[in-house]
Amino acid sequence: MKYTKFSKYVADPAGEMSLEDLLSALSDYLLQSGYRNPYLQFHEMQRDSLDELREAIRQALENGEFLDEPMRESLEQMREDGRLEELVEQILQRMETENYISIDQPVQPAQPSQRSDVPGAAGEAQAQTRFEVTDKGLDFLGYRALRDLLGSLGRANFGRHDTRDLATGIEAGGASKPYEFGDTLNLDITATLSNAIRREGLKLPLNIEYEDLEVDQCEYQSSCATVVMLDCSHSMILYGEDRFTPAKRVAMALSHLIRTQYPGDSLSLVLFHDSAEDLPVSQLARVTVGPYYTNTREGLRLAQRLLQRQKKDMKQIVMITDGKPSALTLPDGRIYKNAFGLDPLVVSQTLEEVSRCKRSGIMINTFMLASDFGLVQFVRKVTEMCRGKAYFTTPERLGEYVLMDYVSRKTRTVH
Q: How far is residue 258's CA from residue 406's CA, in Å, rounded to a whole number?
């Protein structure tokens, strides 16, 4: 006779824990922008110490908001047994195995002949081990940020950008029209047969001529090229508030939205500080804030060059900033700076660039993260010159404003 032996189930927290929920709990740490360490160099890719990640995981586990009750009980038991550090190591190994992080310079067990007698040498070597969030991890963080933002907006699905125009296509949305060469051959069968019967009468076989053909029309859906201009001057992490991390999270969410819901659209990223530069969106989460000044004009010039390469119906610039223009690139390449802002030369040259955007049909929407009088005055002038909008918001509400502005084209006519 066969016997089945049952044993007590022993939970495996490291294997059963949701890494996605853990990454969400660690998102503020993984997307940090230099707020923890304001002396980081600009564009210093985040290769943080593995010990820092261990501590962040440990704190997330102790907080336990993303864990269910059985998992919390297992975690408490491991803490009492002194196996919490072992759990953290297992989680790290799983994160690397599933390609959420990559670890550089892994510590290898020292051979007896190579073992150092210097006190603390092993700990020093361990501290030099670095990790980096992979593209898979960053893509998930962008998806989670988008999901959280859409949840706060109370919407789940967004379509394409509708316009007042009609075009032939598969999804019928308007009256049929006579077929013209080049139209999608999406025949309106009823109208086509009616034309043939009206011309020849009801008989068999029924001859259908070219002029009888009628095709359905669908709503013409336009495409949009967007450049996110992100202020990464040092003020974005000063005054006791981190403004750059929420801005990075919004840009990542917007990128995920465009890639999944608006595949015909394009998104580029421009960072502006003392000067300006374009950056792949996939690298955004790894950068920190930069120098101290705000060269808005150089950012606008670079954004225009990027938009001119795009053959899209609509072109727009989404500018996120917390400071008024305070720098200018001179014709000889030198950077003219005025820390007090509202310098007549800087403002006039910047507004001249705004005027060029208007002549090129580029809309500028500005999202202000501060209520500085000089910034408000400057942005008010920009909106007067360009057919854009200005929003005063906070880092907590920034994502809602940006996404609502972007997807509002779904319900309004594009002019």
A: 10
- Residues 309, 310, 312, CA angle at the centre, nearest 5°? 155
Q: Is residue 114 part of a domain?
A: no
**Residue 33 sits in the same domain as residue 174:** no
Q: Read off the pTM.
A: 0.66
The pLDDT assigned to 352 comes to 94
Strand ranges (E), 245-339: 266-272, 276-278, 314-321, 327-329, 335-337
H helical segments located in 201-315? 244-261, 296-308
* 207 and 236 share one domain: no
Q: Residue type for 392, please?
A: F
What CATH number is attached to the domain comprising 369? Answer: 3.40.50.410
Query: Does one domain contain both 276 and 305?
Result: yes
Contact 299, 272 (CB under 8 A): yes
Do 317 and 282 share a structural domain?
yes
* Domain contains 111: no
| Distance of alpha carbon 187 from alpha carbon 380, whole angstroms | 50
Phi, psi of 277 (to 5 degrees): -160, 150
- Counted residue by residue, the chain has a size of 415
Q: Write the pLDDT tens digit of every residue in 64-101.
A: 888 888 888 888 888 888 888 988 999 999 999 999 88
| 173 shares its domain with 302 | no
Lookup: tokens for 280 = 């792949």
**What does the pLDDT look like over 5-56, one tens digit per residue?**
555 444 577 788 888 888 888 887 887 766 555 445 554 444 567 888 888 8
Sort 243 into a burial class: Cβ within 10 Å, 0-12 / 13-18 / 19+: buried
Reported as a pLDDT band with limits 50, 70 and 90, residue 270 is very high
Count other Cβ atoms within 10 Å, centred on residue 352: 12
Number of domains composing the chain: 3
Query: Do the domain assignments include residue 329?
Result: yes
Cβ atoms within 10 Å, residue 215: 20
